[in-house]
Amino acid sequence: MASVTIDAPRSSRSNGSKRSVNLEKWGWIYMRASGVVLVALIFGHLFVNLVSGDGVQAIDFAFVAGKWADPFWVVWDTALLWLALIHGANGMRTIVNDYATNALLRKTFTGALAVSTAVLLILGTLVIFTFDPCPAGTAADLLPSFCAAGQ
Amino acid sequence: MSTPTIANVPAAAEEIPTFTVTLIIRRFDPEVDSEPRWEDFDVEMYPTDRILDALHKIKWEQDGSLTFRRSCAHGVCGSDAMRINGRNRLACKTLIKDLDISKPIYVEAIKGLPLEKDLIVNMDPFFESFAAVQPFLISSSKPDKERKQSPAERARFDDTTKCILCAACTSSCPIFWTDGQYFGPAAIVNAHRFIFDSRDEGSQVRLDILNDKEGVWRCRTTFNCTEACPRGIQVTQAIAEVKQAIMRGA
Question: Does the residue A130 lie in any domain?
Answer without folding.
Answer: yes
